[in-house]
Amino acid sequence: MPPTASNGDLNPVYEMMSTEGNTLRNISPTESIEPTIELLSGPVTYRAAIKNDNNLVHEAEYVASTASFNTQLWEGRWTIEHLTRHHLGLHEQNVCVVAPMCHWIRGSFNVCIPIEVQSPNACRKLLMRCAMPYKLGEAKNPGSIDEKMSCEVGTYAWIQDRCPDIRIPYLYGFGFSDHRQFTHAASRSWYIRVMHWARRQMRSLVANPNLLSSYTSHPSNHHLPTAYMLLEHVGSDTSQMLSNTFHQRRGDLDRRRRLFRGIARIILSLARIPQPRIGSFRFHNDSSITLTNRPLHCTMMILENDGTPRTIPTNETYSCTEPFVADMLAFHDRRFLSYPNAIYDDKDCRGEMAAKVMLRALAHRYIRQSERNGPFFLQLSDLHPSNIFVDDQWNVTCLIDLEWVCALPREMFAAPHWLTGRAIDGVRNGLSEFSAVHAEFLEIFEDEEKTVNAGNSASLTSSIRESWESGGVWFWHSIMSTNAMYPLFTHHIRPRFLSERLLFREEGLLSKFWSEDADKVVESKVQEHEQYKGELASLFNIS
Q: Which InterPro entries does the annotation name (predicted)?
């Protein structure tokens, strides 16, 4: 997940599915002192819900949607078996076993279905990773699922070809929601492999800058109701998600240093090849990969799914940093206007508006004028402990979930904000601890950069250090966060210019520069919040 304020989980939900808790329920007084409902993330009381920045009325809908979606997939398990054989090039006699629903793994945007393939020579464990339409804004912006899938498989293919030192799950094949399907050439017949190899060779001879991936068009008569990927199952007795042990073992210096070294190597490998534009990779029907999609990051998808109007067209990329920053700030403006739970009262509203005004005024301080036109670098905009696999000693064994990799400005390189186990707005409560761990990470990163030739004239270590020392790291986190812009400005950016907090009157004056009709905006947002509280009360059966 992107940086979020602390009322959200530090990590996305990756948990085993069960037949219980898939429907909204009201807890009786004998079970709980106060009204409680069940969300995908677990039970929440009315008292906690009313203080939560998230739109819980919307999130409550996910429970029924998830139950319906899982049932639809389970009823189509024979299709899943057929597609598995199809992408592996197997015959009908090869046994494919789809795991029961209780063993499915739910993430923030996908449900992963374990599959065991039994053949005479071996037994393989795979995952069918199915995108959840109701978490990806498909109803509001048709095509969002396929945009996300196009970016993700484009990134997989690019890393396979250009960064083979980064261990990622093997991608056997995939399908889009519009029924386009592709399979890795290695699983196709010999003549298709030869023809595709010849295409790749011809492209390299004519120096075509666009990568031709190893995936070939491979339609079938079997289709799922969503986009999917058939992946290697990387979990094992010797490798597991970092999130399983992160909180218990993050104090172990040796393990932590091994983890930092593994993360540093991944960051440096991705940055080895500079990119000409800010954007994301896109997979095309001819199997080519181009950097022609908007920079699709996690925050953008979450907020669009929550109702924020689309600000950046899907085919928009940037050759300059300033327009990207301007569009991201405009995107947050639209989120503020469209989100029913964006503020609590008029004071909170004016504070949010004042912070947005000041961030626009200060943006130029955090953009390198010498590199405003690039080069740009591939970055993991959603790196978190649940998409890093490690062994028992915390050596990184695999990187999963690549849908939010983007080419971004150099200034955005940073140490992961979760290194001390806190959400982005909680770092201030342990800033001295985070500063020490940040220095530790930077030392290891610099050591790796000296060892590994990143292919860049300027040091990435110096970029991370400069951003930390200037406070730029908080600016970039604020525009990439779903809901932490105001606390990051208040606690990390504002103190660099003004030692005292802005008074309500001062925030009120600044807020007027956000919009010519600022007072009407405040009045409207307060009314929206009151309406939201009414809807929330109804959800909890509170009259």
A: AGP_Transferase (IPR051678), Kinase-like_dom_sf (IPR011009)
For the chain, the 3-state helix, strand and coil shares in percent, each to the nearest 5, are 45, 15, 35
Indicate if the alpha-carbon torsion angle 183, 184, 185, 189 is positive or negative.
negative
Q: What is the DSSP letter of 359?
A: H
Report the C-alpha gap between 539 and 63 in whole angstroms: 13
Residues 98 and 213: their CA atoms lie apart, in Å, by 29
Domain that holds residue 515: 240-278+318-519
Number of domains making up the chain: 2
Q: Are residues 181 and 265 in the same domain?
A: no
Residue 246 sits in the same domain as residue 167: no
Pairing type for strands 377-380 and 405-408 reads antiparallel
Specify the DSSP element, H or E, that contains 332: helix 321-338
325 with 191, same domain: the answer is no
- Reading the chain (543 residues) residue by residue, the pLDDT tens digits are 666 665 444 444 455 554 333 333 343 444 447 889 999 999 999 999 999 999 999 999 999 999 999 999 999 999 999 999 999 999 888 899 999 999 999 999 999 999 999 877 777 999 999 999 999 999 999 999 999 999 999 999 999 999 999 999 999 999 999 999 999 999 988 989 899 888 888 887 776 778 999 999 999 999 999 999 999 999 887 899 999 999 999 999 999 999 999 999 999 999 999 999 999 999 999 999 999 999 999 999 999 999 999 999 999 999 999 999 999 999 999 999 999 999 999 999 999 999 999 999 999 999 999 999 999 999 999 999 999 999 999 999 999 999 999 999 999 999 999 999 999 989 999 999 999 999 999 999 999 999 886 455 568 999 999 999 999 999 999 999 999 999 999 999 999 999 888 888 999 999 999 999 999 999 999 999 999 999 999 999 987
Are 280 and 266 spatial neighbours (Cβ–Cβ below 8 Å)?
no
